[in-house]
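Reopening this one. Same input as before:
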Amino acid sequence: MTPRVTRLLAAAGLAGFAAACASTGPGPVASDFGAATASAPAPAATRAEPPGYQINGMEFSGDLVFEERAGRPIVTYRHAVDGAPMLIAELDLEAEWLADGVQRFEGLSDRGVDMEVALTSGPCEAGGRMHARFARVQAGRTVYQGCARETGPVISWSESLPRYLGAVEACQADAASSSMAFVRRGGGHVIHARTEDGVQVLRYRFEERGRWDCAVSGERVRWSVVPERAEPQAGEGDPVFAPGRMPSAGDGCYLYERVQTPDGALIGALGQDVCSGGMAGEPGEAPFG
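Same output, byte for byte:
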């Protein structure tokens, strides 16, 4: 595994995925969207979902799975369409898989069909369920559209981001017109989102000005500083969300994934830290500076 691939896997939120996958295989692919959402999860002790994405649409379903074989990262995609043989493809990870803010994986299926899976972050609704990514799958000349959800033993907080977008807008508007305008200079990042007693709470990080919580209840917005010694929320800062902007790749040591509306309008960007944690033998940075 090259240092570059190691950093990319860390950027995809898959650091340490080898141990998680050691005793698991790709989960079953549902025949349609309804079946995929209605199935009951198996106990964690008997079957854990491998890291990757489950993709579902009206006409198809698929599993995009990240594994490690003999020290080499592998991306496997299983594509199921009613009435047709399943396609299984090993997709390329070495290519520029995160370009223009979109995750793309390409390869050839076991039946000789060219495959491409493209994932774009944003609120994608299907079957009455909100997902955090749009999915576009091309199998030969046929294009399938659907939604994707993250799978694995640890799910990123950003999977819940679609339900907090209204709160993000409220916090951004309040910060622009209040005393927070000085604090938020440079934009800042949302590093976590949670709900407490019906109140939506977004945690921001404003570089040297530290962490702040923005609590939204109805039309009321309230900011409060997070004590420096306060323990981080589970998964805090992995990834970060830059509202309303799409920074350049590498800006702030992040690799950015575009977040957009269903019609393609920019909402912001998810930044995956590719410097911290000592990945690839490089010196890391403290999570909160």
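So the earlier flakiness isn't reproducible anymore. For the record, Residues 165-176 form the longest helix (12 residues).
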